Amino acid sequence: MGSIILILVLSYLAGSIPGSVWVGQLLYGVDVRKHGSLNAGATNVFRVLGWKAGVLSTIIDVGKGLLAAGVIASIRIDELPSGFAFWQVESVIRLLAGIAAIVGHMLPVWAGFRGGKGVNTAAGVLFAITPKTMWIVIGVFTLVLFSSRYVSLASITAALMFPATVAIRMFVFDIEALDRSLLLFGCIFAIAILYAHRSNIQRLVSGKENKVQNFRLAHGMRGRGEL
Fold first, then answer.
1. What's the pLDDT tens digit per position in 122-178?
2. What pLDDT band is residue 181 in, cutting at 50, 70 and 90?
3. Residue 86 clears pLDDT 50, i.e. is over it
């Protein structure tokens, strides 16, 4: 159990790195949680500080998920619990590490437990586990984003698409042998993303959600002199 506890703690701490907050404060002297949507996620960094800060924040957030599920989950200080096949245990541990990182992103100990919604960090986790499935999900995200201009709608659709894609690949086409725990995680992940975006869903229904006005390189509120 020592390995699992260590993995969970380190993954949570890695997920707690508030990339968006630190990018804003250290590089621009701006706390993004006080501007735009008041959210500590990369989308709000794009909105407030522009594309350069937004891209950097996105890389950090995705990297946290990759680090947790791809690296930290491999740490061993004792034997893993017995009773399952090796690959099943490994899959579950990687998912647990990913969940800990996502929780850390949403409730970061380094930033007063005020974090983002976890979409980018979750994407990093899933890329580490099943990159082929994630490329399909990224394609859906991009299609919805460019057709609707709603980042929130694209995120919600992508979250729902992940477990659907895993199920189709596993049970319909039998393309890839994936642990069924990944399907369960995908369903939980989709529900969590829906809950995190509940205010966005309300604004989408009422027609008040913010749209991406254009897809040219954005300079953000700071670049427009609004800060």
1. 999 999 999 999 999 999 999 999 999 998 999 999 999 999 999 998 888 776 666
2. confident
3. no
Q: What are the sequence ranges of the domains in the chain? A: 1-129, 130-213
- Rounded Cα gap, residues 122 and 106, in angstroms: 11
Q: What is the mean pLDDT of residues 52-66?
A: 96
The pTM of the full predicted model, rounded to 2 decimals, is: 0.85
Instruction: State the Rg of the chain over Cα.
Output: 18
Closest CA to 162 of 98, 74, 75: 98
What is the distance between the alpha carbons of residues 21 and 111, in angstroms, rounded to a whole number? 8
